[in-house]
Structures are given as structure tokens and as C-alpha cells.
């Protein structure tokens, strides 16, 4: 069944398993200028203590607190002093894990997105984690909201499942550690998938 809210049980699993499940799912976000709905086509999985690229690798902090659960909440963080990135929290409550939303195709509200990002081409209007949050108008105020609540301003819905044969995997983008860990998942052939950039920075990723 498509178009229903994703359940907590579907997300209370290893982020590496949740990541391909989220491909094809849809994010619906209400804003003052309208509602935008997108189909996820690229994501990255992040664990906790066993993942050097994770924000939770060194333990729980006020910044990463949401990433520790419960599943189904939105973890939004600020990066490079200018961008927001959004993650779907996964794993069981108290165990850190999340899936970074990297890229999506606009399903509804294309006119709203064009007004928010007037210089973007249609295929690249949401093809990167910071670009995607801009298209959805997500910021720090959305950190911690419940994506599974029908009254939430941002909701996670099931979509048409992506066949396993159409899912590709590879290294995560721009991380400082575990650069070759193949926990990035994307829909093969989607023009909205972002460009891969190998990492090498000297600080944790998500």
C-alpha cells in the first residue's frame, strides 16, 4: 500500500537496512507558501559507535540527541555555517542511527520549489542534502519532529517500492572517515541523484 504513513516498526531497524527501504518513499512538507512532496532517490546510512563517520561515534551530545531515537523523527543539523541537512532517525530507541536524505524528485509542489530555488534546473532542484532541505524549506525548527504523526508539518509516506535490481550502492559522499564504506544507496537512472565527491575531511560526518 502506497501513500500511507511509514510506521515506527518499519524504521526501528539497522540504518543500513532502512536506507534502501526509504528509496521510493515520499516526504511531504507543509510551508507557509505551500506543500511540497518529493520521492527519495538517494540516501546514506549512518550508525553510532561502530561508524567513525557518524555524529554519534563519540557519544551522545545535545547536537546529536535526536539521532538516538525514537525512530521516525527528523534529525536536522547545520553544516559549514550555511546549510541544513535532514535525516530520518532509525534503529531502536536509545541506539543511535539515521539515514541522511541526499536527493529526491519533486512529485507535488513544483511551482513552490521553483519559487524557493528559481535558478535551479528541474532535474537538480533537490539533488543534494542541503539543496533538498532548501526545496522542502526545512531548518533547525524542524529538528526532532515526528515524521509519522499525521498532524506533523513534515510527514514520511510510503511510495512505490524500488526494485532491488534498480538500487545501486557506493561510498558515502564527503565524509572524513570510513570513506569507502558502501552505505550510500540510490535509484539507478534517476537524474536527481547527486554527484559523488570523495571525502577526506578530518571531522565526523553525520
Explain what this protein looks like in three dimensions.
- There is one protein chain.
- It is built from 4 helices and 8 strands; from the N terminus they run ααβββββααβββ.
- Strands 1, 2, 3, 4, 5, 6, 7 and 8 form an 8-stranded antiparallel β-sheet that branches.
- β4 and β5 form a beta hairpin.
- It is globular, with a radius of gyration of 15 Å.
- With 206 residues, it is of the alpha+beta class.
- 13% of the residues lie in helices and 27% in strands.
* Low confidence ranges: 201-206
Overall pLDDT metric: 91
Number of strands: 8
Report the sheet-strand fraction. 25-35%
The shape is: globular
Class by alpha and beta content:
alpha+beta
**Head-to-tail CA distance between termini:** 31 Å
Q: Largest beta sheet, briefly?
A: 8 strands, antiparallel
Rg, nearest Å: 15 Å
The ordered H/E elements are HHEEEEEHHEEE
Describe the protein's topology.
Elements: H1 8-11, H2 15-22, E1 26-31, E2 34-46, E3 74-79, E4 83-89, E5 98-108, H3 110-116, H4 129-136, E6 154-157, E7 167-170, E8 184-187
Antiparallel strand pairs: 1-2, 1-6, 2-5, 2-8, 3-4, 4-5, 7-8
Brief summary:
With 206 residues, the protein is an alpha+beta fold. Helix content is 13%, strand content 27%. The chain is built from 4 helices and 8 strands; from the N terminus they run ααβββββααβββ.
Amino acid at each position: 500500500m502506497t501513500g500511507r504513513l511509514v510506521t515506527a516498526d518499519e524504521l526501528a531497524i539497522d540504518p543500513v537496512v532502512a536506507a534502501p527501504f526509504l528509496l521510493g518513499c515520499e516526504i511531504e512538507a507543509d510551508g507557509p507558501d505551500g506543500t511540497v512532496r518529493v520521492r527519495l532517490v538517494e540516501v546514506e546510512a549512518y550508525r553510532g559507535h561502530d561508524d567513525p563517520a557518524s555524529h554519534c561515534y563519540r557519544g551522545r551530545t545535545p547536537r546529536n540527541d535526536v539521532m538516538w531515537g525514537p525512530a521516525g523523527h527528523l534529525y536536522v543539523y547545520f553544516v559549514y555555517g550555511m546549510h541544513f541537512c535532514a535525516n530520518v532517525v532509525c534503529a531502536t530507541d536509545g541506539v543511535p542511527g539515521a539515514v541522511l536524505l541526499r536527493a529526491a524528485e519533486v512529485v507535488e509542489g513544483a511551482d513552490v520549489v521553483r519559487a524557493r530555488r528559481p535558478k535551479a534546473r528541474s532535474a537538480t532542484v533537490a539533488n543534494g542534502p542541503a539543496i533538498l532541505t532548501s526545496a522542502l524549506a526545512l531548518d533547525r525548527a524542524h529538528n526532532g519532529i515526528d515524521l509519522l504523526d499525521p498532524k506533523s508539518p513534515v510527514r514520511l509516506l510510503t511510495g512505490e517500492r524500488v526494485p532491488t535490481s534498480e538500487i545501486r550502492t557506493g561510498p558515502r559522499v564527503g565524509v572524513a572517515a570510513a570513506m569507502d564504506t558502501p552505505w550510500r544507496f540510490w535509484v539507478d537512472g534517476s537524474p536527481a541523484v547527486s554527484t559523488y565527491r570523495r571525502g577526506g575531511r578530518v571531522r565526523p560526518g553525520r
